[in-house]
Design brief:
Elements: H1 20-28, E1 36-39, E2 42-45, H2 53-60, H3 63-71, H4 76-91, H5 102-116, H6 125-130, H7 139-151, E3 169-178, E4 187-194, E5 199-205, H8 213-231, E6 235-239, H9 242-252, H10 263-274, E7 281-285, H11 298-319, H12 323-359, H13 369-377, H14 382-390, H15 395-405
Parallel strand pairs: 3-6, 6-7
Antiparallel strand pairs: 1-2, 3-4, 4-5
Helix pairs in contact: 3-5, 8-10, 9-10, 12-14, 12-15
């Protein structure tokens, strides 16, 4: 506080602790200790007890808003549109950090349908609001959606720098994805840098369940578009994704047709692009992973340098995740490949049984094992042995290998089976 030359207000200063013993120590020092407090309209609880009196009071204060809705001559679609944006935004402010009883939420729901005059006798208020096209009209869904948005924040509008260079701003974007060919394990992120100022603009993980390279590239472009609108500058977006460049160019040429795939992000890109004045936005394609040593012009070297910067930023954002998430994901990856190895081992067993049964009459009984192995290799079993090499072979998997081939692969010091046991 001394460095900032500020004097704290003793009447508004308090201390808090989450453990009872720590609270007693603070009280023994004569410091004002709170179990809950209100900050920026939200309710903070510093213990196990639920302190939501202020939130319940907000819900009770909505009576005047419901009365205005009841008197409003606007069409029903307009009054329903106002529910989440006016009523729920005030009544449920800070709901993501403070629980509210279902009875209180249902009371808000009943008051809403009465104010909208859509509650005949015997009608369910929950059903009336839940079947509306705007799901946020129901207070319970609004509460859920607020929590989900806080857990999966959109970082495309959080800029690390707003510095601009002279003239048009050249923004390089790139996306990164781990295991892009395995949707169950894919993890994507994006990054954007400003070559005109030499500053990083933003980076972050791709939100949602769909973790793909195209969506990562699109999020990087979305960040660039938002940054250009925020700074009020002309922008050239350089991307190694022809998919994104073609889409932005189609929007600028008024030839864009909303595709079914990634339609949510394309709709957002369309809205952002439409806010640019003519001639202030361009999209250029740049080859990916350019070798600087192979460049034969200053322009190619410049493109290679900044495209590499964007690529490194996107990859860094993918690795910059919490330790708990990284540990849980690594456990999921190990489980996935172990189960894949077991399933492929079972497939080998069934394949050998079928092959032996169908070829018994044609194959001599004294055919050497090496001939069998040669024929099995030709059917693509190398992938299975790669998985066995990457992960320690369990007793079950090794038993299947022994049953199938009559021998076991050697193991290295780490207990992983090798590829040379054929």
């Amino acid at each position: 506080m001394d460095l900032l030359d500020l004097t704290p207000d003793d009447s508004k200063t308090y201390t808090w602790a989450v453990q009872p013993g720590s609270r007693k120590q603070l009280q023994a020092l004569g410091l004002p200790t709170c179990t809950h407090a209100r900050e920026l309209g939200g309710v903070l609880s510093f213990g196990r007890a639920t302190r939501n009196a202020a939130l319940v009071e907000h819900c009770h204060d909505t009576a005047e808003l419901f009365a205005r809705l009841r008197r409003s001559p606007a069409p029903l679609r307009h009054t329903v549109f106002a529910l989440p944006r006016k009523v729920w935004a005030r009544a449920l402010h800070g709901i993501s950090i403070c629980p509210l009883s279902e009875a209180q939420v249902h009371s808000l729901r009943c008051s809403a349908v009465k104010a909208l005059r859509v509650c005949p006798a015997g009608c369910s208020a929950l059903l009336r609001l839940s079947i509306h096209s705007d799901l946020e009209a129901d207070p319970s869904f609004y509460q859920l959606w607020v929590v989900v948005r806080d857990l999966c924040p959109d970082l495309s509008g959080n800029f690390a720098s707003t510095a601009t260079g002279p003239g048009i701003q050249h923004l390089f974007t790139d996306g990164s994805c781990i295991y892009p060919d395995l949707p169950e394990l894919a993890l994507a992120s994006w990054g954007t840098v400003n070559a005109s100022s030499g500053q990083l603009i933003g980076s972050g993980p791709v939100p949602g369940l769909a973790q793909t390279i195209p969506r990562a590239e699109m999020w990087a472009a979305i960040c660039s578009l938002k940054w250009g609108l925020f700074c009020l500058v002309s922008v050239i977006i350089w991307s190694d994704s022809a998919y994104v460049v073609r889409g932005i160019r189609a929007i600028l040429a008024n030839a864009f047709v909303l595709p079914r795939e990634n339609s949510d992000l394309w709709a957002l890109i369309f809205d952002l692009t439409a806010q640019y004045d003519p001639g202030t936005l361009q999209a250029q394609h740049v080859p990916s992973h350019i070798d600087v040593q192979a460049c034969d012009s200053p322009l190619d070297e410049w493109l290679a340098f900044w495209n590499d910067k964007a690529d490194r930023l996107g990859a860094h954002a993918n690795g910059n995740r919490g330790l708990k998430l990284a540990g849980a994901r690594q456990a999921a990856v190990s489980f996935y490949f172990e189960q894949t190895a077991i399933l492929e081992a079972l497939f080998l067993v069934y394949s050998r049984i079928a092959d032996s049964t169908s070829a018994r009459a044609k194959r001599p009984h004294n055919e050497p094992v090496s001939a069998l192995q040669t024929r099995f290799r030709s059917t693509g079993y190398t992938k299975f042995h790669l998985h066995v090499r990457l992960f320690p072979a369990s007793l079950f998997v090794r038993s299947l290998i022994f049953f199938t081939y009559g021998t076991l692969p050697p193991q290295n010091a780490s207990g992983s089976a090798g590829l040379t046991w054929w």
